[in-house]
Amino acid sequence: MESPTLTSCSSLKDVVDHILVSRKITRQDQRLLLTLTTNNAEEMGLIRVVFDRLRQGLLRVVD
Questions:
Q1: Residue 39 — pLDDT band, cuts 50, 70, 90?
Q2: Main-chain dihedrals φ then ψ at residue 48, nearest 5 degrees
Q3: What is the CA radius of gyration of the chain?
Q4: Residue 30 burial (CB count, 10 A)
Q5: Is the pLDDT of residue 61 over 50?
Q6: Which of 10, 33, 39, 61, by CA, is between 20 and 30 Å from 27?
Q7: Model pTM?
């Protein structure tokens, strides 16, 4: 069963949680990350977690 899609009204934490739970990142997820990210330290830490997992091969990139 596919996980529900996120909307643009989701918070950055919701998007990151969705990515980490599903273990994949979609184009929609990427767009939401770019749209919702500001330059505060907490949000940058969340983004860093996603990129670290990508580099480690723990996330799959899907279209």
A1: confident
A2: -60, -40
A3: 11
A4: 14
A5: yes
A6: 39
A7: 0.82
Q: Please list, in sequence order, all residues whose beta carbon lies within 8 angstroms of the beta carbon of residue 6, skipping any fewer than 6 positions away.
A: 14, 15, 18, 28, 29, 32
Distance CA 63, CA 43 (A): 24
Chain segment 4-16, per-residue pLDDT in tens: 566 655 899 999 9
Tokens of 57: 């091969």
Three-state SS at 53: helix
SS3 3: coil
Q: How many residues are given for the chain?
A: 63
> What span, in angstroms and rounded, lies between the C-alpha atoms of 49 and 63?
21
CA distances (Å), 22 to each of 5, 10, 54, in order?
Answer: 11, 16, 13
Number of Cα atoms under 13 Å in the Cβ half of residue 21: 10
